[in-house]
Every structure is written in structure tokens, then in C-alpha cells.
Amino acid sequence: MKNTKLKITLALASALLMSMATLASASSALPSFEQLDLDKDGYISMQEAQSNEEVTEKFAAADANKDEMLDQAEYSSLGHE
Fold first, then answer.
1. What SS3 state is found at 35?
2. Is 69 helix (H, G, I), strand (E, B) or coil?
3. Do the Cβ atoms of 71 and 42 come closer than 8 Å?
4. Where are the domains of the chain?
5. Can you name the CATH fold of 31-81?
6. Per-residue confidence at 17, pLDDT binned at 50, 70, 90?
7. Could you give the percent of the chain with pLDDT greater than 70?
């Protein structure tokens, strides 16, 4: 009986940990370029980027030509697409 309870407890704990890992990886995924390019001009401005904390934090480093906008290639350098 004790052994069965231990197995059930371990199985539930394992399932919970896997669920948490799945949620964590999903929440860290960046939105697509198209989702952030709200005005559909082919660039992501800092104002558009502010809807995602990670993109906002990495914006300056990704803006290779320092025009204060991210094109598709610059956005891809963030590790998306």
C-alpha cells in the first residue's frame, strides 16, 4: 500500500513538473514578426516592441543599423523565425 501511494505521488509530481516546463517554454516564445508589426509597414518600432518584454530588452542590440526599427532580418537575430 505504501509503495503504491509513493508511486502515485511520484507520478503526479512528475506530471506537474512536465506541465510547468511546457508552460515556461511556451511563455518564453517570441511573437512572430507579423504579430508585432501592428501597422504592417515591414518594421517593428520600439512602440510596437513594447508589447513583449523580451523584445523590448533586446531591441537596441538587435537594431544593427541603429534606425530605431527592426526589420525582418534584425528581428530574426533575436532567435525567432
1. helix
2. strand
3. yes
4. 1-29, 31-81
5. Recoverin; domain 1 (1.10.238)
6. low
7. 67
Phi and psi for 44 in degrees, rounded to 5? -110, 115
Beta strands in the chain (DSSP E): 44-45, 69-70
Nearest to 58 by CA among 40, 35, 38, 80: 80
Query: Quick count: other Cβ atoms within 10 Å of Cβ 52?
Result: 17
Model confidence over 31-66: pLDDT tens digits? Answer: 999 999 999 999 999 999 999 999 999 999 999 999
Element (H, E) at 51: none
3-state SS class at 32: coil
Measured CA to CA, the distance from residue 21 to residue 15 in angstroms comes to: 10
Total residue length of the chain? 81
Question: Rg of the chain over CA atoms, in angstroms?
Answer: 20
Q: Residue 73 corresponds to which amino acid?
A: A
Tell me the pTM. 0.64
